[in-house]
Amino acid sequence: MLHILRQDSIYSSTCELRFQQTATVLLLYCFFGLINRMNSVNVFAAVSLSVTGSIIVFYCYVQRKRRSTWKAVGRLDNITIYPLKAGRAVFLEEAECTEFGLREVDNGRFLLRDRYFIVYEEETKNRFSCKINPIITKIGLNVRRDNILKLTCPDFDDCEFKSPSATSNNSTKSKVLIYINNESETVDCGDVPAKWLSQVILKKDSGIRLGYYDEESIVRRPDDRGMVAMYKSIFPTIKSNNLGAYAFLSSYLLINQASLDDLNSRLPPDEQPVKATNFRTNLVISGIDPYEEDELRFIRIGNDVILKYIKFCTRCVVTTLNPDTGEFNRKCEPLETLRSYRMPVDDRVNKLENWSPIFGVYFGLHKPGIIRKGDIIYIKEKNNW
């Protein structure tokens, strides 16, 4: 299929180039013909016509050159969102790419978005992390019907509650600490999900709240405070409008299937292969070489969506957490294997990120649109934009 796409692209470009060459020759012929046949009064008109035609030809050339820098290399294999930060994955066939990250395509009901719900401690306002409370990875959040949401967890009854809204008379806002010195507002989802989550995670009736990111009423996190500012001092591509809702440093996380296959081939023989969900990624692509994603600066997915590079993603102990069982790998795999060959070379990065290995890439939104599983992936070299 990619071969056919490239052939079509080459044929189209060749036809356009021949058209431009023919147009140039005809314009030159007309110019010199007019010069020979017209008197001096009409020479100015002939020159104007020639200049205008040259501008048109040059514009066509620039547009063709701009389009020719996109190269079809593979396809989009998986689209994944995590409606509850640190919770279970939801796999989609299509999604809308927004500045805040992925969301379901409009279907007439409450739309699930990536990392729009967050679990936090009622008293301290600190978010609950699956590093300390791994059971969170087993908690799913989905839509049951219309605007009724449902929380699920193995061995527990389901919890249904109404979708939150900052415009509701009963809604309240509070601050939640996402990372070190990085706060964000959140809309409280009420007592029903709070009690259920407290029972599941703490085995008590209270202590935990569920927050929702209402993009219409919440001010975006700044990029000049706390840990985000520390990262930005090394990675200036990190900006407030790329932070997403409750994601860490950007609204899109991508991994390459070839890189995942290579990693699994390096694991000890007695280890089970890891999956994309170990890395809590949004997008899985195929068609490029292992770790070639590190060098991508712009990618196009399908006909419309364009993503821009933010930084590589360094990995923590969460990658060793089995997303299906909620149990950590006793040998700290795949983290230990990644440390053997995927460490950053910059000591500043190692100190900031606690000597963590690289796997995957953070992207931000450059052009919005709809993406679908199976879409063609186009890459653009960093110097060709």
Which properties best describe this structure?
alpha+beta; 4-stranded antiparallel beta sheet; disordered N terminus; 385 residues; 18 strands; 7-stranded mixed beta barrel
Question: Please, could you describe this protein's structure?
Answer:
There is one protein chain. By secondary structure, this protein is an alpha+beta fold. The protein has helices at residues 2-37, 43-68, 191-202, 226-232, 257-266, 335-339, 347-352; strands at residues 71-81, 90-92, 94-98, 101-103, 117-121, 140-145, 148-152, 159-162, 173-179, 182-188, 208-212, 252-256, 283-286, 298-301, 305-314, 358-367, 369-372, 376-380. The strands form 4 sheets. It has a 7-stranded mixed β-barrel with strand order 1-13-12-16-15-14-18. A 4-stranded antiparallel β-sheet has the order 5-11-10-9. It has a 3-stranded antiparallel β-sheet with strand order 4-3-17, with no helix packed on it. α1 packs antiparallel against α2. The chain is globular.
Topology at a glance:
Blueprint: H1 2-37, H2 43-68, E1 71-81, E2 90-92, E3 94-98, E4 101-103, E5 117-121, E6 140-145, E7 148-152, E8 159-162, E9 173-179, E10 182-188, H3 191-202, E11 208-212, H4 226-232, E12 252-256, H5 257-266, E13 283-286, E14 298-301, E15 305-314, H6 335-339, H7 347-352, E16 358-367, E17 369-372, E18 376-380
Parallel strand pairs: 12-13
Antiparallel strand pairs: 1-2, 1-13, 1-18, 3-4, 3-17, 5-11, 6-7, 7-8, 9-10, 10-11, 12-16, 14-15, 14-18, 15-16
Helix pairs in contact: 1-2
